Protein 1
Amino acid sequence: MKKIITYNVNGLRSAMSKGWMNWVKTENPDIICLQEIKVQTDQLNLDEFTNAGYHNFWFPAQKKGYSGVAIFTKTKPDHVEYGWGYNDEEGRLIRADYGDVSVISVYIPSGTSGDERQAFKMKWVAEFQKYINTLKKKRPNLIIAGDYNICHKPIDIHNPVSNAHSSGFLPEEREWLDNFMKSGFTDSLRQFSKEPHQYTWWSFRANARANNKGWRIDYQLVSDPLGKALKRAVILPDAKHSDHCPMLTEVDF
């Protein structure tokens, strides 16, 4: 059984200053998929992660203080793949292979900064779908964990009506995510819980987190061949090291 956590830390050094490392030791996951690390490895003491029992693999953005993904893992992977040949300079995807199972940490771009970036986001997810379609042919057992920057359904956002034209809940984004799931993936949280008000991101404005006015944009999608191996999936809203909270799954592989 593997306990897998995905967490957009919105700056790893910032999260660590809020007790993130102690939280990791208490939670004790087997694999941690990180997004928006906003750090280069020479800005960290990597011994801190090694001493906690984790092999750590990094794919930072070329631009300092921006984006970047990582995977921490207790079991050393057979192979680690950095990027996928598209937009790799932004450090948005890292893949670890364990036998016939692959775990991916992905950070899909946000489109909130304007029309140009929104158009880029839609191009990015289209290319990502092609990459996954190809990858599945040789690596059918996939766990794609990360910040998708899209709410899937009205249940996944606190105010679906007023956000109907907001990046992250646009019809074309939701349609893409719906089609992506239908291409052979299980939304792990919804496998176990159909309850509303389960969010993974809150604005810093208007006391949104205290009032639980959030968005569910972080997922662990499990490919259909692994569906029966999925044993548990929960959001962990009490972890407060970021404007996101982590999500946990337990998968028997």
Note: The first strand starts at residue 2 and ends at 8.
Protein 2
Amino acid sequence: MNLVSPFTVLFSSDKKLSGSIRNIFGFYPGNIFLYQLAFRHKSAAKEIVNGIKMSNERLEYLGDAVLSLIIADYLFKKFPYKEEGFLTEMRARIVSRAQLNKLSVKLGLNALIKSETYSHQCKSMHGNAFEAFVGAIYLDRGYEFAKKVVLTRVIDVHLDIDKLENEDTNFKSQLIEWSQKEKVPIEFKVINEIGNGYGKQYLVELLINNEVSADGRDFSIKGAEQIAAGKALEKIITDNHS
């Protein structure tokens, strides 16, 4: 997996970051700039020209799509007899913001993030950096390499799929139960369709009490609703404990 000579790292613009990525994921970066950008939160964005600032948001967008495809492919092969609904829910559990936040911290990626805000002020910072990192690998080394890293260095090592399968993480049903108990109306709306054919994704907006609370993007409407519901539940739990 190590395709870059250690001697190349000696001339890297960020030897510490290169070494950290090698220690955690088993490879040296090719284009170190991509990885520097992946760990730059928008609060520490650098202006490049005419007010345009560079942060990890674009890489996060790309990494989200790449990660979703990797996980979809993995689950499709791991569970050959399961129906679409099961596969969609399992993918939503794995790529949920809460799960990616945990994985990012567990891997030590949180220590690599450049930010001018505190992590407790931006709950999604760690998970966003994880997605941006996947996007960086994809641009640097291609899809197959990114897939291998995610599966062998993250999924196989840090996720208990059997335990995750048995957890009650049907976020949409939990949110509906909460809304009924609190007598607060909720509504899911498909507000955009991104791409075409098999690559089409749906952007779903979640309204709580007629106000936008969260959104979710996935290759199915159900999956996007689950992601949006998961984000909303995380906010609700955080607010109740603050």
Note: The chain has eleven helices and five strands.
Protein 3
Amino acid sequence: MHGDGVDLVVCGHEHHYERSHPLRGRQANETLTPIPAATATEVIDTTKGTVHMVIGGGGTSLPSNKLFFDPPACRVITAVGPPDAAGKRPPVYVREDAPWLAVRNVAHAYGFAAFHLDPGTRPGGCTTINVTYYDVVGKEGELAPFESFVLRRPRRD
């Protein structure tokens, strides 16, 4: 962690892969839409913002990569409705554009990410995280790189 914030947030739950641009701040709207601070997708300066990755390609019978909106958008829960007969409160959704989205994997639902951290070797140099996301393709679990990118920031020493 740096004074500017976190470089990378990794989460799962959804059964697909997607990645945001570096984000800093949020819009003053109902959904608090994250604001992209930069749009580079191969080498990302994380002093500008935090990159978020959804890595949910570990396996499921119901992958979610076929549920993406085109053009990119998202549904955001903004409230819950009144209880139904079973006492459950249904979510209230708002659909909005996804200007924060950098990359998503529509073609393959299964995969994993590999990370290589280099803290740098000299004062004033850069710390980097090299990330490669691999698709699992074929019946024998063959791998194919989907994307690679680098997160970097100056060392604080």
Note: The mean pLDDT is 89.
Protein 4
Amino acid sequence: MTQVALITGGSSGIGRATALAFARQGAHVVLAARSADRGEAVVREIEAEGGSAIFIPTDVSNADQVRALISQTVERFGRLDCALNNAASVEEPFLKTADFTEEQFDRSLALNLKSVWLCMQQEIRQLLAQDPPGGAIVNTSSVNGLGGVAQGSLYAMAKAGILALTKSTAIEYARQGIRVNALVAGGFRTPMLEGVMERVSGGNAEARAAIEKRFTEMVPLGRIGRPEEAAEAALWLCSDAASYVTGHSMIVDGGWTSPYR
């Protein structure tokens, strides 16, 4: 049976790389993101390689749109086998905790934590209802969720929340054939990371180069990761090779956080 894989945030970065990786293994891939242009571009990439994919424009912080995403996935392919809940955003400014507004708090949590719960809720209901039941879910967290982040407390809080949500859900549904794990991502060469470095540097090329140099010096492997390297970890967590792995937080960061774990 051909697998059906759902990737949120599938239009760029780790999501795009994972979508391509699933397609190369023969899966039907469903991409969900807010950017239709980029999402459709990834579908064309997959189809150019002979793969099967569709794009469904979705704001995963909206419950109705998430319900529609799962419904359309099943209407098209008949079932769901695995999901990477990868969509995230760093829209909020870099501020100290007391300086965020309530609106910024609500927006950040909606985009980065509530969205994962909304997706898991609908994915789990589908995985339980189908025949045969079961499947695998991977939630993208971040090394920022392993500790504190100055001027990034809202994002760090959301990513830490994903880890607790993942572990709790893994315990609840293990006996029903659903495995749930977290991909704890370090620094990867993605549009999100590029955008953060651009914002921190204020658009100054020299400052940006210095930021990237300092970052890479903190990573034992001495480089920023490739999205494909994160994709391989997500792919493995969804595979039968990981059949005895659930409730796990897989840190993929080039060794960056090794001294602090």
Note: The mean pLDDT is 94.
